[in-house]
Amino acid sequence: MSDLSPAAASDATAAPDETAAPDETAPLRVALLGAGTVGSAVARTLTHEADDLAARTGRRLELVGVAVRRAGRDRADLGVDPALFTTDAAELVTRADIVIELIGGIDPAKELILSAMAHGASVVTGNKALLAEAGPTLYAAADEHGVDLYYEAAVAGAIPIVRPIRDSLAGDRIDRVIGILNGTTNFVLDAMDSTGAGFTETVERAQALGYAEADPTADVEGFDAAAKAAILASLAFHTRVGIEHVHREGITEVSAGDIAAAKEMGCVIKLLGICERTVVDESGGEGISVRVHPAMIPLGHPLASVREAFNAVFVEAGSAGELMFYGQGAGGDPTASAVLGDVVAVARHRVAGGKGPGESAYADLPVLPMGRARTRYHVSLDVADRSGVLAKVAQVFAAHEVSIETVRQQVVTEDEDGTPTPPRAALVIVTHSAEDAALSATVDALAELDIVREVTSVLRVEGS
Amino acid sequence: MSDLSPAAASDATAAPDETAAPDETAPLRVALLGAGTVGSAVARTLTHEADDLAARTGRRLELVGVAVRRAGRDRADLGVDPALFTTDAAELVTRADIVIELIGGIDPAKELILSAMAHGASVVTGNKALLAEAGPTLYAAADEHGVDLYYEAAVAGAIPIVRPIRDSLAGDRIDRVIGILNGTTNFVLDAMDSTGAGFTETVERAQALGYAEADPTADVEGFDAAAKAAILASLAFHTRVGIEHVHREGITEVSAGDIAAAKEMGCVIKLLGICERTVVDESGGEGISVRVHPAMIPLGHPLASVREAFNAVFVEAGSAGELMFYGQGAGGDPTASAVLGDVVAVARHRVAGGKGPGESAYADLPVLPMGRARTRYHVSLDVADRSGVLAKVAQVFAAHEVSIETVRQQVVTEDEDGTPTPPRAALVIVTHSAEDAALSATVDALAELDIVREVTSVLRVEGS
């Protein structure tokens, strides 16, 4: 479509224009991109709760179009005038005060958002992948055009977390954010914990129950959580963190044995997104570590009781101390709640003047490689039952300057099926905190020892 | 001091003036009223973290005065220029862009805030008593003068809860807010639960540990929680709710026996602030119930695991579902974190233009009397061990249209010290949900029965 077509020209007349006096009674024009689960829930609320939203905003919100991929589907339940559906998203974004982007992915979402901003619209999005990949570009465009870019729905669904970190804690110093950021993986790990079942069969059950996608890769490999961790780290540390900075390990390697080992330790295994501030040199210089991996956390930690598909974000701040935010991390209605909170916020800015805070990247802290992250390891070894084994194992830890917190040794004289075997020992070692590179090198060296038959499992321990 | 004195005239020149062009590089002038625990923590952060705060705000925040009751005390640790201390709060508020009120109480806090606003300052306060008593007056003044009134610190200390309810959930419909809003009472109830000790000795222990004041009335009688519940209800339901609307019962009557009875039920007792939306007539008209009282909640409820002096607020919203916010509800540093988050927010509004949302009272729902609140009762009775007792008791419930969920009967044949007694029975009854008036009338009628020796305890049950 050409910008010079008569239709576009008449749209342009209606678009915000800094030289014309704004009409203070005209409704704010809202364009919705995408009518999937979340988009449908947003459309329904915009339509059915219009009076409440107007009272809270100070102006009516008028849905001026819903961009869909395919026209003609029956969407009568949304309560939206069928004439508002369009397949021309590029045109729609040029004639709105607020654009809600819920189509996901990088293209064409990115171009549509940039075009919307260039045409003067504030943007509300739930697109974590796009923010984690192109956040700075989008922020710069919002800044250039004097519009808002809000994205509460991109992290932990319905849970208010972007606004608390960005606004409520703006006068504090955040040291650590640990989140259960993906509902599918929490459901799977929680079910493995309650049933003792293995990973594969539990994923199949989660798929049958609708908690996991047919292709669960984005969830179980940690991609989804990594994008969210990048966004949280950017906000918490006033530093640009992209998905490429996030160390990522999924839960596909977590076995029923690992879960059982965690139970024996009084722990549960969770897939955690961890954003951490660390002192990196003797002069007190700081860096940050951003990573997603499964880890044991003690049952007494507030995150340990987050069950099923719930999400939670645990924040440690210098003055505020420990905070936790808990709720539903996905689903149409919960995510729509976060989207609409943002819509009301950016609409209030239109009505009352001003705009929300933009990108804050002033601190510009270095993002450390995974090897520099400080963590603790839980290592299970299958070793020969000989005298001196523990001494040799302990020596390997000492050589890497990794300090051992506890060792538990158990002699095994039969197989899992009860057949007698030559005596061997299971050694379970939990370390004190050390750099991941040193811990990882220790495990490699242990695997080389002739007295070590097998490194049965290696898990990080967090939250203590 | 006269407004016409030369000093005042020169201050007035520096004050915000809509006709003069604002100086976009001048620092924002911050006045602090009160240098107690929270005020001192705020002053320290304003001084020591000035660079970070400037980067986040977009302008430097300059502390221009600290109003204290008595001059001359040593406050060197605040890092504040001693010349900034003043006992003339009334003068100080006339020469600031942002006034932080941390003196508490109604007078002179109210007049100082109103004067600050009249002189063009935005106000940040942690004064829950004042907000619960005079919120509408303060909001009206903020609106009249085009300034912000922020008060995150007034509810649940460091926990971001005002902003999530007001902003993040602005596009949702909040049905219920249940909060553990007072750290002292939670500490006491939690300690009673772990130790089995009684109320009086536990309060003494809490006082010795600094968790309870020498005069604990405001906490243990629920006044503090009631003020916070009023604020939460106002925000959640877009309705003016003052402290006078809040039904309030403290924890002084909670006995070791009640705690034990809760344990047998798989519950814990918490002092809860409950703000609830209820349908009040057949046409679907709504009212709200706001109340503070001790209640049993099941161990599986997220609020049950809130230990020691921590606070938490559990929110149920139409789209978002269940959310919980957890953290420290009091203390100098945690509360200062909430204050400074607000300071940065109102400062950003000064820099970027605009102001935050004002009072939202459009829904104007009726606040129901306690008798109309729907709840469940746990009633313990000491009854004669005769046949037909249960039938008579059940009849009383039925006559008041209160439905019984469970009954547990236990025959007692000896005293607590082992002396044989005539057989009698302990009856424990848990009801389904009913109006509090009907439940309360049921208990009164039970007490009149000749087969009931004593109504041993009556506790509400929530959160299921």
Report on this structure.
The structure is a homodimer of 464-residue chains. Chain A is of the alpha/beta class. Chain A has 3 domains: 6-157 and 335-352, Rossmann fold, CATH 3.40.50.720; 162-328, 2-Layer Sandwich (Dihydrodipicolinate Reductase, domain 2), CATH 3.30.360.10; 373-461, ACT domain (Alpha-Beta Plaits, 2-Layer Sandwich). Chain A has 15 helices and 17 strands. The first copy, chain A, has helices at 6-14, 37-48, 50-57, 89-92, 109-118, 128-145, 162-168, 183-195, 199-208, 217-220, 223-237, 256-264, 332-352, 389-399, 436-448; strands at 28-33, 61-67, 85-86, 98-101, 122-125, 149-150, 174-180, 247-248, 267-279, 286-298, 310-317, 321-328, 374-384, 404-414, 420-431, 434-435, 452-461. In chain A, the strands form 2 sheets. In chain A, strands 7, 8, 9, 10, 11, 12, 13, 14, 15, 16 and 17 form an 11-stranded mixed β-sheet that branches. In chain A, strand 9 (267-279) and strand 10 (286-298) form a beta hairpin. In chain A, helix 14 runs antiparallel to helix 15 (436-448). Chains A and B meet through helix 3, helix 7, strand 12 and helix 13 of A and helix 3, helix 7, strand 12 and helix 13 of B. Chains A, B: Pathway: Amino-acid biosynthesis; L-methionine biosynthesis via de novo pathway; L-homoserine from L-aspartate: step 3/3; Amino-acid biosynthesis; L-threonine biosynthesis; L-threonine from L-aspartate: step 3/5.
